[in-house]
Structure formats: C-alpha cells, structure tokens
Write a structure and sequence with these properties.
The radius of gyration is 25 Å and the shape is elongated. Strands 1-3-2 form a 3-stranded antiparallel sheet. Strands 4-5 form a two-stranded antiparallel ribbon. The chain contains 4 helices and 5 strands. The protein is 22% helix and 16% strand. The chain is of the alpha+beta class. The longest helix has 17 residues, at 136-152. The N and C termini lie far apart (51 Å).
Length: 156
C-alpha cells in the first residue's frame, strides 16, 4: 500500500496481443503457483492492474517489432493506474539509436511535479578539474593540499 509500480520489461512474448489472462489474488493457492496464472507478462500486468503506457499513448493497430529479428512488440513499460496522469510522453526509438542492441529502446517521460508531488532538483553538471601534471607549481600545490588534508583527518 502506498507504492506505485513502473515496470519496464523485455517480456519475450507478444505484448500487443489482445488475449490477457487474469489470476485472482484472493485465492487460497499461493499466487505464483495458481492454475489461473498462465505465466505470461500480460496476465501479471492485468492481475496487478498495470497500464500499458505505450499502448495507451500510441493507439496503433500494429506496433513495430522491438526485437530486430522479431515481428512483435516484446518490450514494454507498464505503470500503476494511479500515476498514468504523470506520464508526459513515451515511445520506442529506432534500432541502434543510443547503443548497439538487438532491441529498440522504450522510454517514458514523467512530470516530476505530478509524480513526486513537487519539482525535483536539477543535477549540477560536474566541472572538469583535471590535474595539470605538466606544471610543477600545480603539482606541488596539489601535493601540499593532499598532505594538509591527510594530517587534518589524522590519516598520517
């Protein structure tokens, strides 16, 4: 209670299929071993009440294959229905766009203020502070600062 799910999955099954099972959680049988569960990602998604965000935002009859040697969308992003309102956009990238892979990248972009209840802080970009080893004055100053810190923290 009080937690919401964002599930990004390489399901290795057709995630665009219309057939979705349902496995009642209230049964006496341990849920994972229930005969009502067919073992599919779609049954898990349906039983947990998750929303296929790609399918919701991109109402196509057919999706592009997400595996380079496949014909179906086997990768997906599923979210709890309580946070669907925070989704700004989602999609699939072409193969080999950001990294060499045999899968398309799937992405979802959330509004931080809607998802977390407030804006998040922007991360500061790190400044390049490389040690200039060719200038002996810089090296000497670094060594002195290093020893000062080691003495201050009682390391030496």
């Amino acid at each position: 209670e009080g937690y919401f799910v964002i599930l990004s999955a390489d399901g290795n099954e057709n995630l665009s299929a219309s057939k979705r099972g349902f496995c009642p959680v209230e049964s006496d049988t341990i849920h994972a071993f229930s005969r009502d569960h067919d073992g599919s990602i779609l049954t898990l998604v349906n039983t947990c009440g998750l929303v296929d965000i790609l399918k919701l935002q991109h109402k196509h009859d057919s999706y592009p294959a997400t595996y380079i040697r496949g014909r179906n969308r086997i990768d997906g992003i599923f979210v709890s229905y309580q946070i669907v309102h925070a989704v700004l956009r989602s999609g699939l990238t072409p193969f080999h766009t950001f990294f060499h892979s045999d899968h398309r990248a799937a992405y979802v972009d959330f509004s931080a203020s809607l998802l977390f209840g407030s804006n998040t802080y922007e991360l500061m970009k790190q400044k390049g502070r490389g040690l200039q080893l060719k200038d002996p004055r810089v090296v000497d100053a670094y060594i002195q600062a290093l020893f000062d810190q080691l003495e201050y923290h009682k390391v030496i």
